[in-house]
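Hi R.,

As promised on Friday, here is the backbone we talked about, encoded as structure tokens. Could you run it through your design pipeline when you get a chance and send me back a sequence?
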């Protein structure tokens, strides 16, 4: 089996991480994989906000908690030290699909490096808030961006989850 298929079949969403930081070198490779995702008409209208700053990471976590209706002490990022926020240009007709491909590539890249990852929703709602729109402006990011998802990354704590059974009868051949 080739390495790409092996990564696809073995990758699992990880929801428990150690406190060990992810190296910049590994994060650079994960982000690079995201930037090489396919995009409609090759527009490449997706950006990645790579967050390793604990204060900002925790602000994003608190905002996510508020939107999700969880207690303030909950961490929807499961202790992951790195959050890769994927945002896409709202004017691009395929922005949600293009951003989704970026996250998929990054999750596979993280797995290939021995790291864990998980897609966390509510980035759209987080980046609709003025606080986070201002953050983008403060970073020099212009335009109208929609949060597609948070790709959390870290060193897994414990063994990866087992693969769930695949539902049958989901392929229909027309030959």
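Update: got your reply. Pasting your designed sequence below so it's all in one thread:
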């Amino acid at each position: 089996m080739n390495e790409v298929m092996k990564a696809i079949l073995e990758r699992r969403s990880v929801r428990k991480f150690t406190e060990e930081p992810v190296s910049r070198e590994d994060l650079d490779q994960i982000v690079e994989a995201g930037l090489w995702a396919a995009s409609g008409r090759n527009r490449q209208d997706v950006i990645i906000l790579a967050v390793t700053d604990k204060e900002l990471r925790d602000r994003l976590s608190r905002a996510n908690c508020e939107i999700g209706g969880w207690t303030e002490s909950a961490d929807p990022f499961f202790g992951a030290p790195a959050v890769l926020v994927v945002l896409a240009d709202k004017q691009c007709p395929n922005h949600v699909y293009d951003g989704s491909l970026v996250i998929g590539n990054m999750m596979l890249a993280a797995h290939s490096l021995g790291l864990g990852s998980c897609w966390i929703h509510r980035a759209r709602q987080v980046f609709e808030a003025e606080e986070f729109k201002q953050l983008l402006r403060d970073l020099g990011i212009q335009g109208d961006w929609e949060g597609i998802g948070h790709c959390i990354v870290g060193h897994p704590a414990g063994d990866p989850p087992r693969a769930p059974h695949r539902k049958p009868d989901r392929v229909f051949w027309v030959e």
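One thing I noticed while checking it: The chain has a mean pLDDT of 97.

Thanks again,
M.
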